[in-house]
Structures are given as C-alpha cells and as structure tokens.
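Box S1 | Example of a co-folding query
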Amino acid sequence: MLIKKITLSQFRNYSFQSFDFSEKIVCICGPNGSGKTNLLDAIHFLCFTKSYFSKPENTNATIGLQGFRLDGVMENTHGLHNITCIYRENGRKEFLVNDEPCKKFSHHIGKFPAVFIAPDDAFILSGLPENRRALIDSIISQTDSVYLNKLIEYRKVLDQRNSFLKNAFINHYSDKDLLDSYDQQLCRLNNLIFEKRNLFLKNFLPMVIQEYRQIAGDSDKVTIAYLSQLQGKNIEELLRQNLDRDMYLQRTGMGIHKDDLEIKMNDMLFKNTASQGQRKSLLFALKLAAFEIIRAKKNFPPLLLLDDVFEKLDENRIQGLLKKVCLENDGQVFITDTHADRLQHACNALQVPFQLITL
Ligand SMILES: Nc1ncnc2c1ncn2[C@@H]1O[C@H](COP(=O)(O)OP(=O)(O)O)[C@@H](O)[C@H]1O
Ligand SMILES: [Mg+2]
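Box S1 (continued) | Returned holo structure for magnesium ion
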C-alpha cells in the first residue's frame, strides 16, 4: 500500500499545495512550524477520516477561512484510489473513495492502515486509561471491522444507559424493563469486546516487550498487563451489584469502558519510575508492535508516519530503527526532521532510495 499524491486545500498552514510521493521512503524536512506534522496528519486523515490529534474539527481549516479539503491518491492491491475528505463551511464532513461517498466513516477504517508516531505520544503511557484504550482500539479496529462496529454500538448503548440513570435520578423513577434491555445489550457487547481485546493483547503484549528489549536491551524488566473488571467476573452480575452506585452517580461504573493496561518496570509503575529514554523506547515498542501485528493480519505493511523521531532517540537507536522500518519493511515510510542533513545522512548510510521534500 502506497500514497502517491496528496493535495491540501485550506488545511491548517497550507492554503493550496500538492505533494507527489515517488519513493517508499519519504523524508520531509523544514524548520519548526513549517507544516511537517500537518502534512503527516493530512495523510492520517485520509487513512482514518480524522486527525491523529483530538482537536475540534474547525481548527483544521486555515485560520480565518472555513472548511478544508484533502485529496489523495492511494495504491493498494486493487489498484489506485482517489480519497477525498471535505470539511464544509457548514461543519459537515464528507469522505469519498473514488467519488463514492462513504456512508459510514467506520467502513473506511482499516482499508488504508497506518501507524503514526508523534512527538507528544508520551501521554499514552502516563495519561488517562482512555488513551491506552484508544491505542488498543485503533489497532484492533484496523484489522477487525466487527470489533469497530461493536465498539460504536457499545458507546451508543452506554450513553443511553447513562442518560437513563440521569433521568431516573432526577425523576425518582426508573423503567425497569428499559434498564433490563440496556443491560442485556451491554452484557452481550461487553463479553464480545472483552474477548476480542483479550485475544489481541495475548498476542500483542509479548510483541511489545520483545520490541522494547530490541530497542533498550534487557536490563529493565518491563511488564504490561491487561486490566479489566470482566476478568474472572460475570458482567451481568457486575452490573447488578453496582446498580445502586450507578443510580447514585448517574453513570455506569462497570464494563470494558474502564479497561486499562498496567505497565510496570522492575515491579514499579512505569509512569512513576521510567526515564525519558525508557518512555521513548516503550512508545516505539508499542507502535512497532502495532505495525507488525497490522502487517501480519493484512498481509501488507501499513503506512508508517514517523514524526520527529530523531528528537526522540539517540543516533544508534535511530539507525537501528530506520534499518528495521526502511530496509526490512517493504512498506512506505514518512519521516520528518528539522535537519535535512541528519536525515539524508541516515538514509544514505542505509543505501536505500529516498525522496527528500523540503518545506
Ligand atoms: N488552522 C490553522 N491555520 C493556519 N495555520 C495553522 C493552523 N493550525 C496550525 N497552523 C500553523 O501550522 C504550523 C505548525 O505546523 P506543524 O505541522 O506543526 O509544523 P512542524 O511540524 O513543521 O513544526 C504553525 O506555524 C501553526 O501556526
Ligand atoms: Mg511537528
């Protein structure tokens, strides 16, 4: 899978600009604020129908203007595809593949898979559990459309149940049958999503640890465990037992929306003890394992979008990483850096053809 071309119209700092990508390794250079991250994020948009960064959609249009448009040409085993994302002035977003409107954006997820490594990704390790769930969901969704649909359904029913709890609290009255129907749906979806996460993580987590060892050596004992209230428990019972509390707090406290990953290093919480370098290494390990697992499931490598990775790792590690993602991988890789010479030097050392785009 390749992206051959992208055109950005009124997208952040780009008023109107096209880029042709002629190689599998594309280096994007330019000073701070020149639009490197924005260009990678535009590619992310075409793969995921949205930005990698959670910002309000209207902030993606160039300041002072309304609406933006992204057009890309992607190639996969079925040939070339024109992908278009239009954000209209009225706030509506449209997504088209070969001029055919996407009725459900979720149908597009996984068709053109990608893995993004961004400078501020540390929040995945140290931030809220929802960040870690988002990472897991993004990986599984790209290889399993049933999972994504069930997740969307789960969020909808969970919202409905939470509104129900709010109303019941305000009105001092609740419709038992309606609650039972929400709970039945939630139980079914909880079990299904838990099962899929469990299966995925059994495979994925050992890969992360292996990648981490390759990047950082084996002196640190890193462990990652899947935490879920559903482990060894019956969700029907959990919902029943927690009902009084849910009614009081007006939200649902039990379920896969509370799942997390517990990351430890030498038996202490990783976020409390890991050094900057160890955090960076683990982030890379997570992303590279994601890359490998998607590649294995899809039978082709996803796009790899590496934003400012040179700022993150020392030269040896960078060379090792580039060797892995540029030489041992036949997919397309985008790498940004503020220093053209540093990037050129690293690619020249690998003796691989690459394209250099200077912003
Ligand atoms: N909505 C917007 N309209 C115009 N410019 C924007 C918008 N959003 C961000 N920018 C500009 O884009 C630039 C940042 O681009 P970015 O891709 O993050 O740069 P780089 O990654 O090369 O450092 C900044 O100069 C910022 O002001
Ligand atoms: Mg940047």
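The longest helix spans residues 176-216. The pocket of adenosine-5'-diphosphate (ligand 1) is lined by residues 12-13, 30, 32-38, 59, 61-63 (CB under 6 Å).
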